[in-house]
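Subject: design request, 296 residues
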């Protein structure tokens, strides 16, 4: 089934209704939740793209990208050019099969075709699967934490428990470190590799009486370190459903950790998910690197 799925741009107005319906499956029908068909058509005709993943004639995934500019007007126009990636959705029964990664790689090709080297987007820092795709597989980085980026209204699906913090992702699609990993010319490091190098886990999670992961109450980043691992829950959506108070505690905790690290010049350069017979862990790796650098 998955091998037969093809990536194809949506170009016509009549192509757009299935993309609207696909958005509603994940975000609902609230007016703030869905990019309308006429807007998708306008995005395509303004130089952006709407990319679809098709199983036969059925649209099962969609990704929107807009041609955009970095807001820093002190820089030359060409240096500010980027693709602002929005709204990737894959039908539930097709998830965990690499469809999202294929959509993002198709978007990378669109950017390269247009001579654009940077793709940006935002995601909830507590979503382990998203972090694994964005940071681990695609080799994007993040050095900007956005507080309540989409406001505090939960009705539109962009805010949860009154919070909509996001990491801003930078994907430099032509960088050698990105190319090396995508072409499988470079190996990725494990959590054990980092630990052997002396990289500390600064906020190791505990467990409450119900066995749910709890944010560390006492954490700190030693001044002498230039690389650190930050833990998040591996199943944050389950916490939202089963234990909202625990989920809210993680929101507050991760906001504090990331803001402190970013203020000290760290950036997200890797993400690791590990699982053994006793536990699973989801870990960001943050490093103090020069401007524009990323690790492979």
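Subject: RE: design request

Done. Sequence follows.
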């Amino acid at each position: 089934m998955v091998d037969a799925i093809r990536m194809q741009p949506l170009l016509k107005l009549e192509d757009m209704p299935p993309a609207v319906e696909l958005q509603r499956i994940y975000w609902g029908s609230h007016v703030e939740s869905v990019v309308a068909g006429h807007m998708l058509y306008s995005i395509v005709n303004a130089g952006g793209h709407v990319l679809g993943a098709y199983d036969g004639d059925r649209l099962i995934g969609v990704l929107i990208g807009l041609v955009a500019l970095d807001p820093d007007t002190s820089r030359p126009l060409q240096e500010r050019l980027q693709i602002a990636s929005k709204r990737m959705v894959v039908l539930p029964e097709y998830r965990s099969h690499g469809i999202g990664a294929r959509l993002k790689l198709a978007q990378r090709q669109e950017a390269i075709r247009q001579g654009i080297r940077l793709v940006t987007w935002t995601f909830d820092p507590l979503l382990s699967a998203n972090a694994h795709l964005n940071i681990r597989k695609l080799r994007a980085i993040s050095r900007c934490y956005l507080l309540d980026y989409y406001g505090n209204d939960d009705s539109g699906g962009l805010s949860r428990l009154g919070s909509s913090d996001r990491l801003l992702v930078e994907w430099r699609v032509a960088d050698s470190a990105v190319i090396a990993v995508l072409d499988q010319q470079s190996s990725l490091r494990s959590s054990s590799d980092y630990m052997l190098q002396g990289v500390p886990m600064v906020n190791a999670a505990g467990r409450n009486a119900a066995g749910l992961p709890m944010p560390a109450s006492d954490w700190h980043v030693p001044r002498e370190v230039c690389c650190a691992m930050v833990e998040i829950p591996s199943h944050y959506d389950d916490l939202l459903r089963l234990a909202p108070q625990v989920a809210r505690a993680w929101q507050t905790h991760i906001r504090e950790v990331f803001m402190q690290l970013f203020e000290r010049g760290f950036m997200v350069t890797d993400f690791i998910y590990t699982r053994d017979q006793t536990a699973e862990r989801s870990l960001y790796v943050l490093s103090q690197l020069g401007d524009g650098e990323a690790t492979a």
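Residues 291-296 have pLDDT under 50 and may be disordered.
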